[in-house]
């Protein structure tokens, strides 16, 4: 007959050892950098006059937030743009004084392109430097889609209040023009480049080839 060893039962129910007092969990550096990138976007969107709504929790593989566009009288238009943020504190890929690059993860890019809403990628270097592209139009060329590479022009792709106020064609396409395009039926409109378009039907999507390339319709003559 086998005898039970003394203390065996007590040992089997013993709680695991706890870490020494005062050693709290550390917040990963990547989480802090990611949040700082979100802070850059929120500040710029609010400065321009639109609404920023973050998703919780933020994720590198998901949508980090939404920009709800407002007109120049601060009224919400109901137009929403999805945003993915990528932030770094170091140098950008192949960075020069005028440009930089970002290589998209294949899984991320596939998800961004599959959605039914406008989607923009914002790459930032906190506290105040950020660049962006409208994903669906940028990767509409199959050759560009295959490479997965974004080449940012530091002037044309600048994501900041000054670029929007200067009516940069790309910035105003989302953050200004799309928020103020809804005119009475049969009134003309101009693109951010200054080109005239046929009169727009009320509640049609704006004539912005970068985000809504085929969805706007002219008013009937």
Query: Considering DSSP H and I runs of 4 or more, what fraction of the residues is helical?
Result: 25-40%
Low-confidence stretches: 176-221
End-to-end separation in angstroms reads 102 Å
**Percent range for β-strand residues:** 15-25%
Structural class based on helices, strands and sheet pairing: alpha+beta
Q: List the quaternary state of the chains.
A: single chain
Number of strands: 9
Radius of gyration (Å): 24 Å
Instruction: Write the element-wise H/E pattern from the N-terminal end onward.
Output: HHEEEEHEEHHEHHHEE
Shape: globular
Main sheet specs: 5 strands, mixed
Strand order of the largest sheet: 1-2-3-5-6
Give me the secondary-structure topology.
Layout: H1 8-12, H2 29-48, E1 51-54, E2 65-70, E3 76-87, E4 99-103, H3 106-114, E5 119-125, E6 129-134, H4 135-138, H5 142-147, E7 149-153, H6 161-165, H7 169-175, H8 177-180, E8 189-190, E9 196-197
Parallel strand pairs: 3-5
Antiparallel strand pairs: 1-2, 2-3, 4-7, 5-6, 8-9
Please provide a written account of the structure.
This protein is of the alpha+beta class and 221 residues long. The protein contains eight helices and nine strands. The chain has helices at residues 8-12, 29-48, 106-114, 135-138, 142-147, 161-165, 169-175, 177-180, and strands at 51-54, 65-70, 76-87, 99-103, 119-125, 129-134, 149-153, 189-190, 196-197. Strand 2 (65-70) and strand 3 form a beta hairpin. The N and C termini lie far apart (102 Å).
